[in-house]
Write a structure and sequence with these properties.
The complex is a heterodimer of chains A (336) and B (293). Chain A contains 10 helices and 12 strands. With 336 residues, chain A is α/β, with parallel strands linked by helices. In chain A, the strands form 2 sheets. In chain A, strands 6-7-8-3-9-10-12-11 form an 8-stranded mixed β-sheet, with helices on both faces. In chain A, strands 2-1-4-5 form a 4-stranded antiparallel β-sheet. In chain A, a hairpin with a 2-residue loop joins strand 9 and strand 10 (244-250). In chain A, helix 3 (121-132) crosses helix 4 (137-150) and helix 3 (121-132) runs parallel beside helix 6. Chain A is globular and about 70 Å long. The two termini of chain A are 17 Å apart. With 293 residues, chain B is mainly α. Chain B is 72% helix and 0% strand. Chain B is built from 12 helices and no strands. The longest helix of chain B has 37 residues, at 83-119. The radius of gyration of chain B is 23 Å and the shape is elongated. The chains are: A alpha/beta (336), B mainly alpha (293). The interface between A and B is medium-sized, with 35 and 29 residues.
């Protein structure tokens, strides 16, 4: 496997290094390889966009990093996830609990149901603080109010005593972000943080994440299917398809020179404001069933540029340029 | 569902005061609460409010089976004892036994059920098969055997009723926990580094509380009936300590002649059970946050 961090942040030790991660689900119909040898790395303070269609393994990758894959039926079967050089897949569950929420935090897609309905939002932020820090009652309450202020919740002292049902979706997502950031993690995983919200609220949440990233200097792994969100936030983009990384490139380069036909298709399906279009372009076909992957390249049955060898053997990752790799035979030998 | 006050008003109030406001508006629930509070007051203040001594025999046969009148509002029994006084004192037994027995079974059942539901897999299977096995044992038979083997102490009855009553709670809590465990807020808590014990105690059990409270208040009625049945069979509280079941038992021979000896303790049981049921329903309506979201 090639190093994923060449080009950007050279010489810097990566914060998180995922190598050959394999997560499978044992279902009644067979073994689904949801994540099948994913490798990429995240540098300190960097924002990576992880994009792909629903079911491509983005969220499972995130859950695997946190070791929260429901087991059974899921299991992490191989690879390594190094956080500052320490393999998170090898440590005990007890040690892993100290990592979760403390060094790596995750914000989920569903702000409406991610808060416990019987406690006030403030108490829940305080609990998150108390999980990794020993603080007195008053100190932890003050810090919780500070966290609510940090995520721009108006009138945090009063809002502290609100129950989740008394808050809007956007406000609840802010509370979730406050909880996730309460112990100053080095890495925040944002799993579709704005997808379940109204468009205007989406923008506010993305804005907030951008500001907080500047303020706290944490790295962000932004998982989304929305390329517009990626364009706003990410420095580097990792594109996943059917459980594997198909392309990885710096943001500008990915949009200007996509190397993989799948990325091409994704970009083409964004509606353009300035060009009148009768029909939105879409990639024909659907993501293959993880139980019945096509032989060779996983994208071959939908690919407009398919060659004979594509349906025989799966291509490896080919370097296209500095920090730009692609899993496509078209890129074979095109690298620097 | 009760009508909602404006959002900003509701926000300023805590869960408890908001719940209490909803509870107060519910007339049936308040009736239940008044009945239950009155019963506990009667039990505590029995020596002050009972017009006669509940145990000392009256002058027999002159005072035997006196029909309800001004001296004895609910009449007298075979030994010339005042039925009203005996009912008031009898509430002590019924309330103590039912409350403590239900408390034991709720705590035990909640913990066992939550453990089974949260840990799942083999733990769940073993615990729930054990529960099934215990449920298959006829309860009254077990109670009768134990009481016959040991003694007729009140504490033994409480312990037995508690120890044989937790399985239903365990099943209830397990079912709740199974569905709660898949909720996003549990995943979120795990993602923040919360351990199993914290998740069970802070995130799962509090969310089952309303269901458990309702089930528990309904169970209290059942326990009062079981205790009455035990006393009726002559294996409850030792006479002459008055208990409602025993009073019904004593009056059964003269039901047609001196109907008041059995009827009034029976009514006391009915009123108590209804009171608890109304209270339980009212509490659920008032304190379930999911209902007024």
């Amino acid at each position: 496997m090639m190093e994923g961090n060449d080009g950007i942040g050279e010489g810097m030790a990566p914060l998180l290094e995922i190598d050959g991660l394999k997560t499978v689900f044992y279902t009644d119909e067979g073994v689904a390889r949801a994540v099948d040898g994913v490798s990429f790395s995240i540098n300190p303070g960097e924002t990576i966009g992880l994009v792909g269609e629903s079911g491509c393994g983005k969220s499972v990758t995130a859950l695997s990093i946190m070791r929260l894959v429901p087991d059974p039926p899921g299991r992490i079967e191989g690879g390594s996830v190094l956080l500052d050089g320490r393999d998170l897949l090898a440590i005990s569950e007890k040690e892993m609990r100290k990592v979760r929420g403390n060094e790596i935090s995750i914000v989920f897609q569903e702000p409406l149901t991610s808060l416990n309905p019987v406690f006030t939002c403030g108490e829940q932020v305080r609990e998150a603080i108390g999980l990794h820090q020993k603080l007195g009652r008053r100190e932890s309450k003050e810090q919780a109010i500070e966290m609510l202020r940090l995520v721009r919740i108006p009138d945090p002292e009063k809002r502290y005593g609100n129950y989740p049902h008394q808050m809007s979706g956007g406000m609840r997502q802010r509370v979730m972000i406050a909880m996730a950031l309460s112990c100053q993690p080095k890495l925040l995983i944002a799993d579709e943080p704005s997808t379940a919200l109204d468009v205007s609220v989406q923008a506010q949440i993305i804005e907030l994440l951008l500001e907080l990233r500047e303020q706290l200097g944490m790295a962000v792994l932004l998982i989304t299917h929305d390329l517009a969100v990626v364009a706003q936030m990410a420095e580097r983009v990792v594109v996943m398809y059917a459980g594997v990384v198909v392309e990885e490139a710096p943001l500008g380069r990915l949009f200007a020179h996509p190397a993989h036909p799948y990325t091409d298709g994704l970009l083409a399906s964004i509606p353009k404001v300035d060009a009148p279009v009768e029909r939105l372009s879409a990639i024909p076909g659907t993501v293959p069933d993880p139980l019945r992957l096509p032989p060779g390249c996983r994208f071959s049955d939908r690919c407009p540029k398919r060659m004979d060898k594509c349906s025989v053997t799966e291509p490896g990752m080919f370097a296209v340029a500095e920090g730009h790799r692609s899993r496509c035979y078209l890129c074979e030998g095109s690298g620097p | 569902m009760t009508a909602q006050t404006p959002q900003d008003q509701a926000q300023a109030r805590s869960l408890w005061s908001a719940g209490w406001a909803r509870f107060r508006k519910n007339r049936l629930a308040m009736t239940g609460a008044v009945i239950v509070v009155a019963l506990y007051l009667a039990a505590i203040l029995a020596p002050l409010i009972a017009p006669h001594d509940p145990i000392e025999h009256g002058e027999v046969p002159r005072m035997r089976y006196l029909s309800p009148g001004s001296a004895h509002p609910l009449g007298t029994d075979k030994f010339g004892r005042d039925v009203l006084s005996r009912i008031i004192y009898g509430s002590r037994i019924s309330l103590t036994i039912s409350f403590l027995a239900v408390a034991i079974s709720v705590v035990l059942g909640s913990l066992v059920g939550a453990a089974a539901g949260y840990f799942g897999g083999i733990v769940d299977s073993v615990i729930m098969r054990f529960v099934d096995a215990l449920m298959a044992i006829p309860r009254l038979f077990l109670l009768l055997t134990c009481i016959a083997l040991f003694s007729r102490s009140v504490w033994l009855i409480i312990l037995l009723l508690g120890a044989t009553g937790w399985m239903a709670t365990a099943r209830l809590v397990r079912g709740q926990v199974l569905s709660l465990r898949e909720q996003d807020f549990v995943k979120a808590a795990e993602a923040l580094g919360a351990g199993g014990r914290r998740i069970v105690l802070r995130h799962l059990l509090p969310n089952t509380l309303t269901v458990v409270i309702v089930a528990a208040t309904l169970r209290i009625g059942g326990i009062i009936l079981t205790e009455a049945a035990l006393s009726f069979l002559g294996l409850g509280v030792q006479p002459p300590t008055p208990s409602w079941g025993q009073m019904i038992f004593e009056g059964r021979e003269v039901l047609l002649g001196a109907w008041w000896v059995s009827t009034f303790p029976g009514l006391a049981i009915v009123v108590t059970v209804i009171g608890y049921n109304l209270l339980g329903d009212g509490l659920r309506d008032a304190f379930d946050p999911k209902q007024f979201a």
